[in-house]
């Protein structure tokens, strides 16, 4: 029986697709984790896991006290 993809992966994949398409460009500020949770209708921990996954994929970077931004592509 097929299982649904975890919500945090769906969110991460959605944001990753927006980065790949150019809708989100390097240096663009992303919404806060709380804002993402509200937008996607999930618990804040789910949104945090999505952001953590994007960070692990090196698609975003965090700047303490400033926010989270789309990372520069590797090698630039």
Automatic annotation (TrEMBL):
Record's keyword annotation contains Transcription: yes
Q: What InterPro entries does the record point to?
A: Tscrpt_reg_HTH_GntR (IPR000524), WH-like_DNA-bd_sf (IPR036388), WH_DNA-bd_sf (IPR036390)
UniProt keyword terms in alphabetical order: DNA-binding, Transcription, Transcription regulation
PROSITE patterns for the chain: HTH_GNTR
- Record-annotated HTH gntR-type domain positions: 5-73
Protein name per Swiss-Prot or TrEMBL: GntR family transcriptional regulator
Q: What organism does the record attribute this protein to?
A: Micromonospora maritima
């Amino acid at each position: 029986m097929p299982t649904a993809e975890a919500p945090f992966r769906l969110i991460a994949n959605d944001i990753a697709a927006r980065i790949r398409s150019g809708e989100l460009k390097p240096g663009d500020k992303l919404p806060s984790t709380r804002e993402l949770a509200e937008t996607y209708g999930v618990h804040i921990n789910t949104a945090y896991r999505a952001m953590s996954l994007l960070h692990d994929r090196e698609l975003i970077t965090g700047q303490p006290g400033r926010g989270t931004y789309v990372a520069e592509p590797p090698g630039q």
